[in-house]
Design brief:
Elements (H helix, E strand, L loop, with lengths): L1 E7 L10 E4 L5 E4 L3 H11 L12 E10 L6 H7 L10 H12 L10 E11 L3 E8 L5
Parallel strand pairs: 4-5
Antiparallel strand pairs: 1-6, 2-3, 4-6
Helix pairs in contact: 1-3
Amino acid sequence: MTDLEIFIPQQPFSQKRHRDGKTKSGKEYKYDPSASEKKIIKERLQFYKPPQPLTGPLVQVIEVYFQTPQSWSKAKQERHEGRYRPKTPDYDNIEKVYGDAMNGVIYKDDKQIVNNNTKKYYSMNPRTIIRITELEPIE
């Protein structure tokens, strides 16, 4: 059984809606507006990368700490430190961007995740913490 804790010290990311359309010449295209964020996450993951991607069933916990609004007073920011953040982005968009970035780096594929929990908080210190536990495979 493998336990891994990943710490990414910056404002958390979320998956943006994919775009598709046609160029002026009529050629169809697909565009992933989160590609640059996934690249940043993958760069941060290199420090935590196991020798081989994990292949067993996984339990994943994602905790994201979003910057408290700068327009809030210092006292209000301090009152909200560590409190749940019931605002956008949606939890599933957070899971998607981090899951896609970890594919092939931390684990073989995000389909291995059998249990996931995502928590959103306010903080004056924005960051993302991901805990992954590889379970024993059932044969």
